[in-house]
């Protein structure tokens, strides 16, 4: 009987330790903190792809205001590229194939994600524009999740672009030019993130 009670008590204590109380949105924002081993406080890395080097590079970008602003600049470029591609395909004046339609739809998702990230700057991340500019923990946590999600969407769009025929009866040179321009910018995104991660202060 005592053993059963001890086991039950141990289970209750373990279950209680796993409960994470999320901070209220009404609480004042605190500055962006890291633990002693370099982990970003308040983020479960596993949920974003801890084994992806890009996750860690984005996290490094968010240590500084310059890194954050650099990321926003490239996110705006991704959005512009997606909008331009969709517009260029329409201007080609041809019926879009299934593969092209899939890429257009992927770009619509990318545009929405990019807008969400850009809106973070004026809402949650407003402190990056204040007199004492800083990246708050709330800003960093939300930005990390959204930027990593955008990175995965861009990667998926590049895969979709590779399915569009470049030669043969189903190839359309106007569409292929638009695809080439789009993928040239999209494939630079991971390297541009790395560049942002090297900025300090």
Short description:
This protein is mainly alpha-helical and 201 residues long.
Describe this structure in words.
The structure is a single chain. This protein has 201 residues and is mainly α. The relative contact order is 0.16. It contains seven helices and no strands. Residues 5-48 have low confidence and may be disordered. The chain has a single domain, classed as Four Helix Bundle (Hemerythrin (Met), subunit A) (Up-down Bundle), CATH 1.20.120.
Give the assembly state of these chains: single chain
User: How many strands in all?
Assistant: 0
CATH domain fold name: Four Helix Bundle (Hemerythrin (Met), subunit A)
Contiguous helical run count: 7
- The dominant shape is elongated
| Overall structural domain count | 1
Strand content: under 5%
Order of helices and strands: HHHHHHH
Unreliable segments (pLDDT under 50, ≥5 consecutive)?
5-48
Structural class: mainly alpha
| Residue-averaged pLDDT | 76
The termini sit apart by 60 Å
Question: In the CATH hierarchy, what is the class?
Answer: Mainly Alpha
The CATH architecture assignment turns out to be Up-down Bundle
Helix content: 55-70%
Biggest sheet architecture: none
Keywords: Signal
Signal peptide: 1-17
